[in-house]
Amino acid sequence: MKWKRSERLVDMTQHLLDHPHRLIPLTYFASLYDSAKSSISEDLTIVSETLEARGKGHLLTVPGAAGGVKYIPKLHETEIRAITDELKERMSQSDRLLPGGYLYMTDLLGDPDLMNRIGKVFATVYANQKIDAIMTVATKGIPIAHAIARHLNVPVIVVRRDSKVTEGPTVSINYVSGSARRIQTMVLSKRSMEKGKRVLLTDDFMKVGGTMNGMKSLLAEFDGELAGVAVLIEAEHTAEVLVQDYVSLLKLKQVDERNGSIVLEEGNYFQKGGTQS
Amino acid sequence: MKWKRSERLVDMTQHLLDHPHRLIPLTYFASLYDSAKSSISEDLTIVSETLEARGKGHLLTVPGAAGGVKYIPKLHETEIRAITDELKERMSQSDRLLPGGYLYMTDLLGDPDLMNRIGKVFATVYANQKIDAIMTVATKGIPIAHAIARHLNVPVIVVRRDSKVTEGPTVSINYVSGSARRIQTMVLSKRSMEKGKRVLLTDDFMKVGGTMNGMKSLLAEFDGELAGVAVLIEAEHTAEVLVQDYVSLLKLKQVDERNGSIVLEEGNYFQKGGTQS
């Protein structure tokens, strides 16, 4: 059956968007739609230009025999700003304040649409970098890690506080939690990561960066390389941050338990001028 | 700027697929593309027919002033079979066997593309049911819960083994873990769920169903209603399963530590004849 251009465009769009950062040979589309490669190329130009015009990313064409096309999700700066503004507004609600000055954000981490959009933001930031995996600590970072990983087409590695029988042999390290200066343990299943990978660390919240620093030590045990650190919210504090080159969307300036105020401002993403390259 | 049909089709497809199970008024597209509603309707027919022909779901048209169009992800039976077969093949690798007969599956749960496809499978199964939220237990069920939730456009609720300061007030219950018959505790943040919700439970693995039964008890504390139980893999055993109406993709028949064999067969999804309605 020969497909009409209109049908090809719909199907190509769904297929490409469902497989971000994956090389799809032109022959895949040509044989699926029983169409000439020249028609497919024209279709792909329409798809790419439309996605780009709407700020959803673009198609990267890889020439040659082993070539093809790859969808690179990349949000416009305006959309990144809109997502961050929404996150800031929702995080500023005073009923999020918990005893001790902690902020409740479990509902946000359980919102798959918000997580999807935040995943796209960080996939935009690291779109041009080599990333082999996303690493996070159980449990709150998991939805963010998966959202980023989905848009970068890489696996998620989950570090735990304790080892479990279902994880097999593990590597464990001790680290100093930044703010409380307590010794803590982190455990990673040996088979969850090969040696020498380039890894992006992520978490929902970062204070001094003790947890991130712990993950860095763990990464070193696997001869891994740090590709970057992506956090939703960093907290302001006087101590020096233990990790460099992190990207945050929001910064928590101040929490006042008495009058229930939460003061947030934009994170360093906006100072850094966006995309890391 | 007036959009061409080809551009509208690409953009509509990306927008609809990015917002599953969400009602989008026709006026949204009409004003975005500066096009007549009649043209938009024709476009939507092309999108819906193409998605359906490719086994990716369809568009549901809701008539009336408050109407619009909704993308309902629904995989073809052949694709559900292909995903299950892939999962079965990967799960059968003998190096997954851990001491005690446990199976290593952390890598699969960290594969965002596989999780995405499994999410679509369960979103297909429960496409016609009223589901208000997906509930799972930390930590291994989280990627599955988020994948399903994303395709059904509902929030994820994560039950924990212990309470944390960042969760606020919690409700806790005790339950009997099915196989070991140990008393265990489950904790849920009070503000993570409103009363009276219809909830789908999910997890990666189910033996007798003790954990699921625990979540059922917790759900009862929130006057919630059980919408169903979705598990990747159920294990065969002699005891009676503690939950009814579960859907599994695979069944673990036998594990032999000595010769390293893992015997899996299809889960009850294939006996039930698919979609729950």
UniProtKB/TrEMBL annotation, chains A, B:
Keyword flag Transmembrane: no
Gene3D superfamilies according to UniProt: 3.40.50.2020, Winged helix-like DNA-binding domain superfamily/Winged helix DNA-binding domain
Keyword Ubl conjugation applies: no
Record Pfam families: Pribosyltran (PF00156), PuR_N (PF09182)
Segments forming domain Phosphoribosyltransferase: 118-253
Entry's Gene Ontology BP terms: negative regulation of DNA-templated transcription; negative regulation of purine nucleobase metabolic process
Bacterial purine repressor N-terminal domain sequence ranges: 4-73
MF terms (GO), sorted A to Z: DNA binding
Keywords for this protein: DNA-binding, Transcription, Transcription regulation
InterPro entries: PRTase-like, PRTase_dom, Pur/Pyrimidine_PRTase, PuR_N, PurR_Bsub, WH-like_DNA-bd_sf, WH_DNA-bd_sf
Family to which this protein belongs: Belongs to the purine/pyrimidine phosphoribosyltransferase family. PurR subfamily.
Subunit-level organization: Homodimer.
Protein's UniProt name: Pur operon repressor
Native source organism of the sequence: Tetzosporium hominis
